[in-house]
Amino acid sequence: MTFAPLGKDVNVDVDALPETSRAFAMAYGLRQLLADSHVSGKTPDEKQGLLDKKLDKLFEGTLHVRSGGTREGDPVARELTKLATAKVHKHITVKLGKKVKDVSADDMKTLMAKARALPALIEMAKANVAALAEDNTEL
Q1: Are 97 and 89 within 8 A, CB to CB?
Q2: Hey, which of 66, 85, 107, 119 has its CA 20 to 30 A from 14?
Q3: d(Cα 97, Cα 104) in Å, to the nearest integer?
Q4: Does the global pTM surpass 0.85?
Q5: Are 80 and 89 in contact (CB under 8 A)?
Q6: Which of 129, 122, 115 lies closest to 87 in space, CA to CA?
Q7: Cβ atoms within 10 A of the Cβ of 71, count?
Q8: Residues 33, 36, 42: CA angle, nearest 5 degrees
């Protein structure tokens, strides 16, 4: 696993840990997982629904499976998503005078689809990826 604060891999042989340490880590991880699962819910019913969905995935063994997540293998698509997100956020805050969190999920999907379809944004994404691929600057 990658330990973000250090930015490097940390190898932990879970089988070598004492049972008490494994039990603690499991309980801690589950507590965090379940606490994080319902944060985006706005009502108690939504929060419970999100928690139940997470628990279902846990018991089905599909918790780790991505289904259309945000990570994309295509670097141009990833860059396009990044550019579209910035454009949509600017449109919402500057042109509409709203906070991004106040825009409904359906409206956000519509705005993102429109932004991703903009020819200028597509070309910019392609150019950014090409420029990065050609950059031989050493760090």
Answers
A1: no
A2: 66
A3: 15
A4: no
A5: no
A6: 115
A7: 8
A8: 145
